[in-house]
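Exercise 4. Each item below gives a protein and its sequence. For each, produce the structure-token representation.

Item: Secreted protein (Stenotrophomonas panacihumi).
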Amino acid sequence: MRLSRPLVSGLALALALSLPAGAAFAQRAVSGDLQQEMTPAQFKAAGLDKLSATELAALNDWLQGKVAAETQKATAAVAGGTGAAALAQAREEGRQEVITKNRGFLDFGSKDPIESTIAGEFTGFGKGRHYVLANGQEWEQTESTELRVRKDSPKVKIKPGLMGVWYLQVDGYNTMPKVRRVK
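Answer:
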């Protein structure tokens, strides 16, 4: 009887990936033969009871070698290549999250505008007004530019200027007062 490659590979990989104690556990898990590791019902259901003693010993040797090889590959992946790439990707995602959360408070060198919508009704521009965006940011107008209009949840762009200045533009209007992020 021949065990399918995905079944054996999956078993070996599952054992190997239970890191950090994976290597020790994997070696312990198949230290004996399959007959000792499985219940009699499992052994019979897998058809292993039909193998001769020599065939069963060859299967046990092969499985132990496969588990050791998969454990070594998984350990190397976590310690080096794949693990390092995953760590670098997680680090970059975290960096991007910090940049996104703190844009407007700190300058990250990006000239891209912040795009969102105003949460609720927009009643125009006026010095000292606060604008709460759908992305959770809150901005305060710092200059006396005025515009009288009523719009429900309009799209906005907050564009960076020179020396840490930001300008708020409401979709459909050219007026862009200076604003500063307060939350």
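Check: The chain has two domains: 5-79, 111-181.
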